[in-house]
Amino acid sequence: MSNVPTFVIDGLKASIEDKEILKGIQLEMKGGEVHAIMGPNGTGKSTLASALMGHPKYEVTGGSVTLDGEDVLEMGVDERARAGLFLAMQYPSEIPGVTNADFLRSAINARREEGNEISLIKFIRQMEKKMKELDMNPEFAHRYLNEGFSGGEKKRNEILQMMLIEPKIVILDEIDSGLDIDALKIVAAGVNAMRSEERGFLIITHYQRLLDYIKPDYVHVMMQGRIVKSGGPELAEKLEAEGYDWIKEELGIVDETVEQL
Ligand SMILES: Nc1ncnc2c1ncn2[C@@H]1O[C@H](COP(=O)(O)OP(=O)(O)O)[C@@H](O)[C@H]1O
Ligand SMILES: [Mg+2]
């Protein structure tokens, strides 16, 4: 039996406060693949991540999103998570009063059938193992979720969640921001260890640097709320060497942001 997920975004449009940000996103990915979405600031990358997870602030106005043929847009946020979607946010929220360990255990159990919850012992063993892999201080298990975490600690914690939840489709929004090079390597190793046929990755990043450590199969460039160019890893290398201006010239784009339209 094949457990290779298929994730299809077809003509996705989304607005915020009646302003259209996403103008028809087209992207198909399968388990085993790593897709990178690159682009300057303000081009709609985080909006895409939020719309895919069902953030209530973003109104989807057109197109479809399916995971293994199931209509994702029909699902609530928790149903999307249960179906196997996971988003590591650019700016993770702080949740005082909920410990990291409690949050993680609930998130794991939400993906499991009732009556098949993970035992406390097994959970703690797994959590401690993954925290060690991510070089996290064990005390982070008992801290309130993200409260007082530094930027880099939040990012590591997002990867810890991903490792324990074992999603089918992982969306990482600027997971590299705020990380020094050692932390970046640890986070990248965590992601690479999770790469398998059973899981697809959508890696959103402003900088090419992350892609030196997580090798993408496909690279897409976003401007003005659309994917304007796609290619292989060589596209990311060209962007590192030459920046984004040549794409703008090639496509006759003066301002790449969504704002100025
Ligand atoms: N919550 C929001 N409220 C108002 N405008 C928003 C909000 N989120 C995004 N936008 C606007 O949408 C555009 C794209 O933003 P975003 O998706 O964050 O871009 P990126 O992640 O590529 O930097 C920007 O013009 C931004 O101001
Ligand atoms: Mg962003």
From TrEMBL:
GO terms for molecular function: ATP binding; ATP hydrolysis activity. CDD domains: ABC_FeS_Assembly. InterPro entries: AAA+_ATPase (IPR003593), ABC_transporter-like_ATP-bd (IPR003439), ABC_transporter-like_CS (IPR017871), FeS-cluster_ATPase_SufC (IPR010230), P-loop_NTPase (IPR027417). Pfam families: ABC_tran. SUPFAM superfamilies: P-loop containing nucleoside triphosphate hydrolases. Keywords: ATP-binding, Nucleotide-binding. This is Fe-S cluster assembly ATPase SufC. The lineage of its organism: Bacteria, Bacillati, Bacillota, Bacilli, Bacillales.
